[in-house]
């Protein structure tokens, strides 16, 4: 095995390693559980940018003081279906699962409920929380903002974060309908990947330091909003995430958020987020909604496709990848392996590979 | 004046003409008021595809029996913050303003509320209803599906409608923040415009009858979802509109909806829609939200732009156009003029031009 080789490790072993690393650094049980399950959502479904590669990062933030190892998140329920979760600088997944639990409980009574999250931090894959709610029978919407990385339409500086937008709905089958998208044209890790592969980027997805479009991944300093010529649409959906997560909660706007990567790992980032849950029984009813989703997905998946293509529902690619990875194990890139080795040495843990 | 000339007519005169035409055809006062104000939203803000050109169409649908001239929309409030509006085959704007009124009233109590609309029809510009709520201090989301016109990502047949997605927020200024987008790459009227101008379409926005991308507007038989290479994102946002408006209400999916243009103008189209309102006082509070929106919009509008460009917030282009049109009058294309002339002759009305 060379230093540049991706290796595979069993899902359960990786999960146990992450929980034990968080626990060893002094994080409480809820933080260890929630940080791990959000990253496992990413790693299992093939969203490696938001997978277990973040373990070392989160632990640096916990050790540095940016994140609270033993937070006491508290719900301020303001109206029947709305409120704010004061997250007490919890790791983002800890805050967001907690907020979604409250939103679902409130939605049983009010049909729809939303919780704005205050004083949270990077929450990883938005889809983890939307899927969590859909698996319990709710329709869900989850958004957050993040430090500036995406130019505006016609703009030439980093403004919005990659501001994720996720919606899920129970499908009447084992897996929900799940949209989980960045509002940038491509994820930044695509730029990093193309750099290492020496491949040029598609036209119009990234810009250089002056905001001029470039296809050279080495010159890419910011991302374009999704939509190409119609990037005003992508920028505006990024704006929806910004308004719901930061404005409605009184938290920092994207350009005001400290960079995720540091160097400052001790100052809390004061980030907002927003989760919404709808109970189908507050509308036409769970039975009719599930039948409707089955009818919709049958029509969609059987819709004629371009040669050598298949029309997929949002999430279908991820469920297939998860099935493969549960058998083959999770791919761990060299940087993630190194991070795991350092954590294992620091805390005296057994590696999962 | 030739038959092909666009003429301008004063806003108030056009508005009065539309109300009188609906009234003359036997529609009740609420239908005349709401159908007119939704179209005026389109015409005043430069969204002519959803402006007063639709007057003749809606009146044909009212006369034909597709739409109920004197509907009795009824709210079934199911939980504190959720319910269904049985629209009784009302004209779509009549149903949607009514649903938003209920949603805002419920949101005062529950912080957030959503109303699914049943047995409605084409509702015109989604932004009209989101702006209506934002003008009253609410954040709002409005979606609907419509008859099939947009292919799926990798798909080769019409599937979703142009499924509009609109979000608005009070801005702390006279005009709200307003996103109002079709989830197709371009509106179909852009295809029609380019046909008449003999101009080729941008790459990847439309397909021919076999679903193959074409830049020839004469061959365009369906639209692509917004996002270009990343059209799976646009198709999925179209899916959000589909699920919230049709599945959650038990109404027809896009491929099941009778074509807007007929020939059948007598059968109700049984369309759904979905409106959501949030009261800022259910979250961090209206004062902080307005201050946050002002800070956000100041940062955004002052963000550096490409040469000869200016960064605009969603809606800015429309507010500027509205200011011009309130002075210069509304442009009426020849087809709309003819429609007005026919209505004037049929019902003995005075033309606004």
Molecular structure report:
Chains A, B: Keywords: Oxidoreductase. Chains A, B: It holds the Pfam family Ldh_2. Chains A, B: One of its GO terms (molecular function) is oxidoreductase activity. Chains A, B: It comes from Szabonella alba. Chains A, B: This is Ldh family oxidoreductase. The structure is a homodimer of 353-residue chains. The first copy, chain A, is an alpha+beta fold and 353 residues long. Chain A has a single domain, classed as Malate/L-lactate/L-sulpholactate dehydrogenase, NADPH binding domain (Ribosomal Protein S8, Chain: A, domain 1), CATH 3.30.1370.60. Helices cover 40% and strands 17% of the residues of chain A. Chain A is built from 10 helices and 13 strands. Chain A has helices at 11-24, 29-45, 55-64, 92-110, 126-135, 188-197, 231-247, 286-301, 316-328, 334-347, and strands at residues 7-9, 74-79, 82-86, 112-120, 139-144, 150-151, 158-160, 165-169, 177-181, 206-207, 222-223, 271-278, 330-332. In chain A, strands 2-3-4-12-5-8-9 form a 7-stranded mixed sheet, with helices on both faces. A two-stranded antiparallel ribbon of chain A has the order 1-13. In chain A, strands 6-7 form a two-stranded antiparallel ribbon. In chain A, strand 2 (74-79) and strand 3 (82-86) form a beta hairpin. In chain A, helix 1 (11-24) packs antiparallel against helix 2 (29-45), helix 2 (29-45) packs across helix 4 (92-110) and helix 4 runs parallel beside helix 5 (126-135). The longest helix of chain A is centred in the N-terminal third of the chain and has 19 residues, at 92-110. Chain A is globular. The two termini of chain A are 12 Å apart. The model of chain A has no long low-confidence stretch (mean pLDDT 96).
